[in-house]
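Suppose a colleague, Dr. K., hands you the sequence of a protein chain of 142 amino acids and asks what its three-dimensional shape might be. Before reaching for any lab equipment, you can write down a predicted structure in C-alpha cell form. Begin with the sequence itself:
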Amino acid sequence: HLRSFGKFFGMAGLRLGFAIGDAHVIARLGARIGPWPVNNAALQISRQAFEDTAWADHHRNWLATGADRLAALLSANGFCLAGGTILFQTLRHATACDLHQHLAQHAIWTRVYDEYPDLLRLGIPGDEATWHKLEMALAARR
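The predicted structure, expressed as C-alpha cells, is then:
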C-alpha cells in the first residue's frame, strides 16, 4: 500500500509518504527508488499529526460526509459518477473539458485527464461558502 501523508492531513507541501507491504516487496522498492531521506521538520510534524488521533477521527468523518454530499450533489445535477474516495469524486461526462472550463470561470478548480477526456475530478469543498459556490456554478451551466 502506498499512502500519502500530505493529502489526508492537508499538508501537500510536506512531501511525506509511506510504503507498507511485505518485506521483500519493500526491499525491491527500496532498491529501485534508492534512499528517500526525510527531513527533521517533516518527521516532527508527522509525529505530532499521527499522535492527534481525535483530530484524525474527526477529519475522517468530515471527509466521508463531504464525499457523500459531493456525490449526491453531482448526481442531482445529472452527472454519472465514475468513482471516488473520501478525498474526491470523479465524474464521467462527454464534455468534461467544457465543464472544467466552466467551473474554472467560477474559481472552482478541478482535474482533467488528457488520456481520459470524459473524466473530471472534483475535490471536497472545504467550507459552506465553497459548497454554495459549487452549487451555483453547477446550476448556472443548465
